[in-house]
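A brief tutorial aside. Many learners find it easier to grasp structure tokens once they have seen a single protein encoded end to end. The record that follows does exactly this for Dual specificity phosphatase 19b. Read the sequence first, then the structure, and try to relate runs of similar tokens to stretches of the chain.
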Amino acid sequence: MHSLAEEIKTFSKASLRKQCTHVTTLTGKRLLETWKDSALRVEEEEEEEGACGYVQDFSLDLQVGQVRPHVLLASQDAAQDLDTLRKLKVSHILNVAYGVENSFPHLFEYKTLNILDLPETPITSYFRECSQFIDEAKAKDGVVLVHCNAGVSRSAAVVIGYLMSREGLTFDDAFALVKAARLAVRPNPGFYQQLKAYRPQEMERDHARDVNLEEH
């Protein structure tokens, strides 16, 4: 058995394994960081086709939040899963995603609005049309599934706007209710500010005035 002193004498830095770290930047560039002789060496690796600067999650998100008995909130995965839709007795689907096709046009009543998840998108301008669709489903004792791509920003903003418009809830109360139904909810900063400034009564009054002007 070697003593500790003998092991120290025979120790060599060359026997140490190099420590390497693979890094992917936001633009998809892949880098290899290697520590050698107390110095960091960075090399660019060959890019993979379709690489992105985040960990891609290909798992299905079938979690559906029930905001009201007739209003459900989810991602596109739930909207494309027939078993989930039937289990929840969905009759209407409000699709506010961008570039997501309706999977079962002969089984459910759809309304589709291609909305971009960008802070500058005027999300409140879509509330009136979305709320009317939800109202129509409710009048038929139906259940509406509202979805975008991830069920985080656009669809959440639409449901929050619906609660503020139809139930007179404040933004804070509506946001808390929707967040409790689906924890992943997080409208982008632009939507958040628009919702805080949203005044349903004023928008309805302005809409009625515009309609009267057009008629005359």
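Self-check: The chain has two domains: 15-54, 65-202. If you spotted this yourself, you are ready for the next section.
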